[in-house]
Amino acid sequence: MIKRYLILTCLVLTIFLASAQNTEQDSTAVLPDTDLAIDTSIDYDELFSEMELFLDSILAPRSFFLANLSFNNGYFYSFNRTTNRIEMRESYIMSPGLGYYSKSGLGLTISGNAVNDGQQLNLYQMSISPSFDYLKNRKLAAGISYMRYITKESLPFYISPLQNEIYGYFVWRKSWLQPGINVNYGWGNKTEYRKREILYRKLVANAVARGTIRVIDTVSVLITNKQSIVDFTTAASLRHDFYWLNIFSDKDHIRVSPMLSLNAGTQRFGYNQTTGTYTGVTRATLAYNTGTKSISMVEKFKLLSLSMYLRTEYSIGKFFIQPQVIVDYYFPANDDNLTTMFSLNTGFMF
Predict the structure, then answer these.
(1) Under a CB-based contact definition with an 8 Å cutoff, are residues 71 and 92 in contact?
(2) Whole-angstrom distance, CA of residue 106 vs CA of residue 102
(3) What SS3 class is residue 133?
(4) CATH of range 60-349; options 2.40.160.40, 3.40.50.300, 2.40.50.140, 2.40.110.10
(5) Which tens digit of pLDDT belongs to each residue from 301-341?
(6) Which pTM was predicted?
(7) What ranges do the domains of the chain cover?
(8) How many angstroms separate the CA atoms of 143 and 109, rounded?
(9) What span, in angstroms and rounded, lies between the C-alpha atoms of 175 and 139?
(10) Integer Cα distance of 196 and 269 in angstroms
């Protein structure tokens, strides 16, 4: 307990003292008479050495298997049989996953997305994702991954027609405040696009035939005669990781990672990812907001949103749990710009 508070106190004092230095003063000057006392009985070298060893252990390349399960809130456009209306509804997405990541940087992840469609739990999508992460330099982290989606036929709700995505990221880890950038490029084919379009038009036609809505009241989420089914987004971010060691045992720790992200792109269709991917230090993928309320008709590359993340992690031995809160301000929306998303990711690394 004492060690936990000492680590936090030392970090705060280090930042404060570093920012308060004045090069014009004599380096031999004594501290003024204050109520702040330094406990000389504590071995601060050992304290910081322990933190350094901990960071070395989790940053060092290693091979591991990952089994995880995440829950995220997302938004779906569907036809409500009770009210006979097309409406956007919020629902929790459950995403189980399995992965293997080699200390060489190569990795492979298989995951699925399931949601309660009003009648049952519907495993509507599977994905497979090979990846490579550069892990040999503690000063930076970088990686690239490809994701292929396999989507179930005849879904009662709209999802993105994008079937393929390439994602890349870079994080500069040497500085206290870590800058990063990530890019995401997704594409699909016209067949998948037409399936989504036909489904959506059927939902609209049924509702119009019942007289429950007028055509001008519907929300357009697709564009006819689309020549290319592509989307591109990028995000610039700033983050810092805070650690507390040995909370309940000598094999556990807590990590708190606040992050601010500015997002831009052509978000015409929305992306299929959830925010449940394991984002540990060795796999420093930058999480970003997907599944927001708005699917924009933005044709040109432009500023999309400002997102604030607060991700926490408790890890003990091979088990981890990661609660996360995302607050996203979506610029193109005329109203209801603010979206709050929650996720919980848990699993085992072995």
Answers:
(1) yes
(2) 5
(3) strand
(4) 2.40.160.40
(5) 889 899 999 999 999 999 999 999 999 998 887 788 898 88
(6) 0.73
(7) 60-349
(8) 14
(9) 8
(10) 11
